[in-house]
Amino acid sequence: MEKHIGSCRCGDIEFYFYNDPINSIFCYCKECQALTGSDKWFGLWVPKDKFKFTKGTPSTYTRAGDSGKGVNYKFCATCSSALCAEVTAGNFYSVSATSLKNNKFNPKMSIYASSAPSWAIFPTDVPKFDTLPPGMGG
Ligand SMILES: [Zn+2]
Ligand SMILES: [Zn+2]
């Protein structure tokens, strides 16, 4: 099994996950814009049983997702790096690709493109969805 290691910027919090993500997305929703201070979040979707925090305890900010179920953002209280979002409706973490030590993954789709700011930049070689792809729920 391949192990992928990540941390916040200051190093207080570390984590890893095993295997390739089940999806990798650019998310342009308003929440991700606020979280990143950017046009998008680069999330790697990792099943919860493949992910583990190994150092420190992240702070949590919870909001309701489109499904009504909670999305729990995990971030470092010291340096404020966003590490992942626990999507309880899907039983996975959306791990911030930028927090990995060596990110080798590329985005496979753009989601919530209808919420993107006018200056957002989209990759041209992957599908783009107004919200979520059909059948993926939310
Ligand atoms: Zn930190
Ligand atoms: Zn989002």
UniProtKB/TrEMBL annotation:
CENP-V/GFA domain boundaries: 4-130
GO molecular function, one term: carbon-sulfur lyase activity
SUPFAM superfamilies with a match to the protein in the record: Mss4-like
InterPro entries: CENP-V/GFA, Mss4-like_sf
Keyword Zinc set for record: yes
UniProt entry keywords in alphabetical sequence: Lyase, Metal-binding, Zinc
Record flagged with keyword Phosphoprotein: no
Family statement drawn from the similarity comment of this UniProt entry: Belongs to the Gfa family.
Name of this protein: CENP-V/GFA domain-containing protein
Organism, as annotated: Marinagarivorans cellulosilyticus
